[in-house]
Write a structure and sequence with these properties.
The complex is a heterotrimer of chains A (388), B (266) and C (309).
Chain A: E1 15-23, E2 29-38, E3 43-47, H1 54-62, E4 69-74, E5 77-78, E6 89-92, H2 104-114, H3 121-130, H4 146-158, E7 164-168, H5 176-193, E8 196-201, H6 204-210, E9 213-218, E10 221-226, H7 228-233, H8 238-243, E11 248-258, E12 261-266, E13 269-274, E14 287-292, E15 298-301, E16 313-324, E17 328-335, E18 338-346, E19 359-364, E20 370-373, H9 382-387
Parallel strand pairs in A: 3-8, 3-9, 6-7, 7-8
Antiparallel strand pairs in A: 1-2, 1-4, 4-5, 9-10, 11-12, 11-14, 12-13, 14-20, 15-19, 16-17, 16-19, 17-18
Helix pairs in contact in A: 2-4
Chain B: H1 2-9, H2 11-33, H3 52-55, H4 63-94, H5 100-108, H6 115-129, H7 135-159, H8 163-171, H9 176-205, H10 208-213, H11 220-230, H12 234-265
Helix pairs in contact in B: 2-12, 4-7, 4-9, 4-11, 7-9, 8-9
Chain C: H1 28-55, E1 57-60, E2 64-67, H2 72-113, H3 118-126, H4 133-143, H5 149-156, H6 159-166, H7 178-202, H8 206-214, H9 219-230, H10 232-248, H11 251-256, H12 264-275, H13 278-303
Antiparallel strand pairs in C: 1-2
Classes of the chains: A alpha+beta (388), B mainly alpha (266), C mainly alpha (309).
């Protein structure tokens, strides 16, 4: 179906950033010195709130922004000082940047023509077929819907068989349903052509659905890099814990250590944290932030506290609020150790006693607990997500 | 009472249409009087219907000659002002540089200056330099006062252009020159065209600055001015009517084309 | 902007405020600016300097002029021609107010009420531009002719009695009176008022009218509290675009007025082109320029729209 396959296993599509940083004329540092390697053929996402430096990083790879320090390599070729029109890299721009004065065909053919290729018809038609826009070739960009324009932008970049395709918030202008559809579509195209994709987004769900590897950026730095599951289950910082999904963070104090488990005091109770899931110091009396995801927690009415098996972490509290979502019910629990503890309970057997005001016990498998350095801001990453 | 209410409700429409009438009345008079056959030298009073002037539009000595001079000056002034003005507009929007404020005021001042002041000072310069007044001094003056209008028109268009379009072009292997020719220029074209059209109209119709710096050269507005003293031939009205009709026709045609494009869009 | 690079090694990232690497495109803006700016400097700014110098020269055409710092020319010019200055300001002011009063309803009509007629009305507003304004001004001679229908109607309604009493007209005549000049000025500069008004009115969201109505504002109140304040940028640029050229105009005063309606433009023109008293003419022109710049600055400050241009 497609002529641009590039499934070789060489490293010519690697993107290697070494010590790259960007400081603007006004003194603002958008990107702190950064090392990053994106392997050939991977789908890599740069995730972060606006202003975190992700777009600047992308633009430095594209050549649209010149790094203040450091180097950019594509495979073995250094491209740091190469202008964008000499780099084997193409970009899908935010809000697409389709040329309004050219029709769809000419938009897609633009890159080929600039490289002096005369017979572009066949290639352009194949490419438009790939993105299912064969019928629209002679229309102008403004005559297409948002989703169609998005596909033109992808076709216009992909037709040049770049070594790396850069996507700058490519789905930002689409509505929710279309965005989900296009996420799968882009993933399909990437698998098909095997080109390295570097995708910038502020949408954590988008990053996790599409990418093999996600780099979470904050204030010009990469906070954490890893697979979506890894980032979600083992956040290294409070920023990542809060920015990716929701985390309940409890301030606790080290009580004792035994057999690979740390026992912590929080409020009046005790919590158990696997030693493997905490990288910080564990001297007795040291502070630790204990985290647990809302969907890992079970909720029991206080009357049934006795039926909870031993060996589970437990916290008592009172239901402050509950909202019925359909597949689940989300509870906010007011607890002495954490004022707004969130719990997502699957709607399998609903307990009618679990209404606001009810006394409850929260309990979960200690294996689902993670620990974070208590020196950090406990709310880092919460605001950012709320504003996007 | 009903009438009062009706007037109240349609006040804006009535007042607006009255103003429109005020604007168009002279054009109607010009057209009607192009069919007049006046007694004496002045064409201010209706005498009798005649198509003589329309049959012989160049029948007045020197009139068509002055028309041709005006058209030539307007053409070259448009070319000069459009090229120089567009260059300034691009520099202002696309680059950061020192003395930006000074450049902006230098662009703004000619538009905020009464024509007679510019006319008089320019004449002072030409007299001091001992320049021969005529075609070239008129052209210099026209390029000068049209320039600012072109800058404003082109600047507005280039400013509203998404800078990502140029980045996209460079990303798609277009060199800086190709980017300019293939993307920037075509997208800025409507602004440049608007600036050029305005320049042509301003230059063709200018009287005050031309009158000061023309020497013995006579442009069409100067011919009309002179005839207001010596006697107004009906042919002036013929030219005036033709200009009005051509303008309306051009605008209507461009609008019909625009509408058709819009309809294709939908 | 520029990406053509042969850059020296990059600077340390801890040095904010330092210049970015040198770029080959650094001089591009200056090359783009050079010809046009040079043109304006030589043919706009330099003449102003020549004119300033001329205004303080003394001498005669035969013996030549010399700079003698003779500032008395300014006082003499003001003493001799203050009525013309005053008249210019008054006529231009009256024409500006009339333009605003007449132009606003039409701009409003085009922006909100014209519907599918909008484009046609726009064409009819702009098209007269393309007919020589001198020809159109001469047409007013016919329209306001003595004993013509307009004058006849005004006479029978006793309007002319009132205007004569006010000193705007004389007897049964409209032509060759201040009224005719103001009427011509208003007519000539009306489109300069309508276009900026229309531009700023068109930007107003029509739903604001509905919102105001919904919040108990009568149509008149809506206009006073919502529409008019929002159209202020258009009002300011419209009045400037009308007042400035009107104050310097001499065509209307010459064609439609009499010796009693001469404006400062007429004086400057006569001094320069007929009497050839260059110092006086230059001084007058300078006073006019200074007066207008002062008034415009004051007005823009007052109306608080400095970012108008």
């Amino acid at each position: 179906m497609i002529t641009v396959t590039n499934k070789n296993t060489d490293n010519s599509g690697d993107v290697r950033l070494a010590g790259i940083s960007k400081t603007y004329d006004n003194g603002f540092t958008a990107v702190q010195p950064l090392d990053l390697t994106v392997p050939q053929g991977s789908f890599f996402a740069l995730l972060g709130a606006s202003g975190c430096g992700k777009t600047t990083t992308l633009r430095m790879i594209a050549g649209l922004e010149e790094p203040t320090t450091g180097t950019v390599h594509l495979g073995d070729q250094e491209v740091t000082r190469l202008p964008p029109y000499k780099r084997p890299v193409n970009t899908v721009f935010q809000s697409y940047a389709l040329f309004p004065h050219l029709d769809i065909f000419e938009n897609v053919a633009f890159g080929l023509r600039r490289r002096g290729i005369k017979s572009v018809k066949k290639q352009v038609e194949d490419m438009l077929e790939l993105v299912q826009l064969g019928e629209q070739a002679r229309k102008k960009p403004h005559q297409l819907s948002g989703g169609q324009q998005q596909r033109v932008a992808v076709a216009r970049a992909l037709i040049n068989t770049p070594k790396v395709l850069l996507l700058d918030e490519p789905l930002g202008a689409l509505d929710l349903k279309l965005r989900r559809q296009m996420q799968l579509e882009l993933k399909r195209i990437q698998t098909e052509v095997g080109i390295t994709f570097v995708h910038v987004t502020h949408d954590q769900e988008e990053a996790m659905t599409m990418a093999d590897t996600v780099a979470v950026m904050n204030a010009g730095r990469v906070e954490q890099l890893g697979s979506p599951t890894d980032l979600y289950e083992n956040p290294n910082t409070t920023f990542v814990a809060n920015f990716l999904g929701t985390s309940n963070l409890i301030e606790a104090e080290v009580d004792s250590k035994s057999g690979g488990e740390i026992v912590l005091k929080a409020g009046g109770g005790k919590l158990v944290l696997p030693e493997a899931r905490y990288a910080g110091p564990t001297t007795t009396g040291g502070k630790v932030l204990v985290g647990v995801r809302p969907e890992k927690i079970s909720l029991a009415h206080a009357d049934e506290a006795g039926e909870i098996p031993d060996g589970r972490n437990r916290i008592t509290g009172k239901i402050a609020d509950s909202s019925f979502i359909g597949v689940s019910t989300q509870y906010v629990i007011d607890s002495p150790v954490c004022p707004e503890f969130e719990v997502y309970a699957q709607n399998i057997d609903r307990d009618d006693r679990l209404v606001p005001g009810a006394e409850v016990v929260l309990h979960w498998n200690p294996a689902h607990t993670f620990g974070l350095d208590a020196a950090q801001d406990i709310d880092a990453g919460i605001q950012e997500e709320a504003t996007v | 009472m009903a009438l009062v209410n009706w007037l109240k409700r349609h006040f804006v429409v009535i007042a607006g249409l009255l103003t429109l009438g005020y604007l168009l009345l002279p054009n109607i008079v010009v057209t009607v009087f192009s069919f007049n056959k006046p007694k004496g030298r002045f064409n201010y009073q209706w005498q009798q219907f005649s198509t003589d002037a329309w049959k012989d539009p160049c029948g007045v000595a020197d009139m068509c000659g002055s028309l041709s001079i005006s058209l030539q000056i307007a053409f070259w002034a448009t070319v000069g002002a459009t090229v120089l003005g567009s260059m300034i507009a691009f520099a202002l929007v696309r680059y950061r540089f020192r003395a930006r404020g000074t450049v902006n005021s230098l662009i703004f001042l000619p538009m905020a200056m009464p024509e007679v002041v510019m006319a008089a000072s320019l004449l002072t310069l030409f007299l001091n330099l001992g320049a021969q007044l005529g075609f070239w001094t008129i052209l210099i003056a026209h390029i000068m006062f049209c320039l600012s209008f072109v800058v404003v028109a082109v600047k507005a268009r280039v400013m509203s252009m998404d800078p990502r379009l140029e980045e996209a072009a460079r990303d798609l292997y277009a060199s800086p020159v190709q980017t300019f020719l293939r993307v920037t220029l075509p997208i800025a074209a409507p602004g440049i065209a608007a600036g050029a059209l305005l320049s042509f109209a301003l230059s063709f119709d200018d009287f005050i600055i031309t009158n000061f710096n023309a020497g013995s050269t006579v442009t069409f507005p100067m011919f009309v001015w002179g005839s207001a003293q010596r006697g107004t031939p009906v042919q002036i009205n013929v030219i005036g009517t033709t200009m009005f009709l051509v303008a309306v026709l051009l605008v209507l045609v461009s609008m019909v084309i625009g509408n058709r494009r819009n309809r294709q869009k939908a | 902007m520029a990406t053509l690079t042969e850059a020296p090694p990059p600077l340390s990232p801890t040095a904010p405020g330092k210049k970015p690497p040198r770029k080959r495109g650094r001089f591009t803006p200056y090359w783009l600016l050079l010809p046009g700016i040079l043109w304006l400097l030589v043919f706009f700014a330099l003449p102003m300097i020549y004119q300033a110098s001329t205004s303080v020269q003394t001498g005669s055409l035969e013996t030549g002029y010399k700079v003698t710092w003779h500032f008395a020319t300014y006082w003499d010019a003001l003493a001799d021609y203050w009525p013309q200055f005053l008249r210019s300001i008054l006529y231009a002011g009256a024409a500006t107010i009339l333009c605003l009063v007449l132009g606003y309803p039409l701009a409003y009509l085009i922006a909100f009420r014209a519907g599918r007629w909008r484009n046609l009305i726009m064409v009819l507003v702009i098209a007269p531009f393309f007919t020589s304004f001198l020809i159109r001004t001469l047409a007013w001679k016919t329209i306001l002719a003595d004993g013509g229908p307009v004058v006849g109607a005004l006479n029978s309604l006793h309007v002319l009695d009132v205007t004569s009493w006010l000193g705007w007209t004389t007897g049964d005549r409209v032509l060759a009176t201040p009224l005719a000049v103001v009427c011509g000025l208003t007519y000539n500069f009306l489109p300069f008022m309508i276009l900026p008004l229309y531009t700023s009115l068109e930007r107003i969201d029509g739903r604001l009218h509905e919102a105001a109505g919904d919040l108990y504002a009568k149509p008149v109140t809506t206009f006073r509290k919502v529409t008019f304040p929002l159209s202020m940028p258009g009002v300011v640029s419209g009045t400037l675009l009308t007042f400035i050229p009107a104050a310097g105009d001499y065509v209307n005063a010459e064609l439609l007025g009499s010796t009693d309606t001469r404006m400062i433009g007429n004086v400057i023109q006569t001094q320069f082109l007929r009497i050839l008293d260059y110092p006086t003419a230059a001084a007058l022109s300078f006073i006019l320029m200074a007066a207008i710049l002062l008034m415009v600055t004051f007005y823009i400050r007052k109306s608080g729209t400095e970012d108008l241009v």
